[in-house]
Amino acid sequence: MFAERIKALNPYVPGEQPKDRVYIKLNANENPYPPSPRVQEALNEFDSSILRRYPDPDANELRKAFASLVGVTPDMVYAGNGSDEILSFIFYTFFDSKLPVVLPQHTYSFYPVYASYYNIPLHKVPLEDDFSISIDKLLKVESCGIIFANPNAPTGRFMSLADLRELLTKYDSDKPVVVDEAYIDFGAETAIPLLKEFHNLIIIRTFSKSYCFAGARLGFVIAAPDVINTFITVKNSFNHFPIDSIIQKLGIATCNDYTYYQEINAKIAKTRDWFSCELEKLGYDVIPSKTNFVFVKKTGLSGEEIYKEVKKSGILIRHFNHSGIENYVRITIGTQDEMDLLLNAMKNISSN
Ligand SMILES: Cc1ncc(COP(=O)(O)O)c(C=O)c1O
What we know:
This protein has 11 helices and 12 strands.
């Protein structure tokens, strides 16, 4: 009954959402704060009669609002149903099956899922001992393109713009370099200024993390206008109306309250830095993070042990059973109260 290709599918595994009790959820890098009050107002004012009509297929008002937020022209941005959908279009649009797409060994785990879905070969290059990404290693392989998250996930490490510029300068200018900036708003520096110099740079953003919008599903791609046009052709060959009318309105309200998000994200960064220091005092190794999560291990404990012990206290964090990072856990930064509780739980593990 099913097509042959179904057998080869290896789907993404999202952070768990168990229902056996109420957990503090620090396992999916969601924002612990609510969206701007302007989003609630826009929702209250939404006229349901609009739902009779199809939405604007290109979400043009939303594109304008987002372009103004990030300081580019509207023809340089495009909106998708979460950045996961944008990523799917990226793999379809730019990578073909002759040469591999190159990516770091540890990065967002949906990239290999899309590569497999579209039958694109992958070449993974190891991270350095401190979990930074080696430009030389990325460049060493003959590839059809490069993709990674910056800051990277699940490590939290940031590649400087100087290094990124070096990568773009040395790489083939006809091949895409895709930089997923899902976590850029927690203290890292965006690559948007480099778009003027490098036509092959493609930047991805999501509203799921810094804009408290994970349940709404909204992501963007930022690139040169002709790249965006090709993207629109792909989108129109798959799903003509990816962003519904409600989300287009709420997305605009989000873009119009940058100050609110700047404040909550600065608060998250402050909590992260405090939490990292406290964990170090307890003997944990914490990878320096520019994101809303920290990647952590402790000598003598496996990642799975830390994850299980913390879960007993009613807190969910993420453990990846991947070779090379199996001793680490990834912890989303929540509110100060949530992090106090987690710190207490992690203190108890250390004293076992
Ligand atoms: C690096 C990275 N890119 C993209 C995404 C997907 O985000 P979205 O919710 O917009 O699909 C995630 C989600 O965890 C992520 O970590």
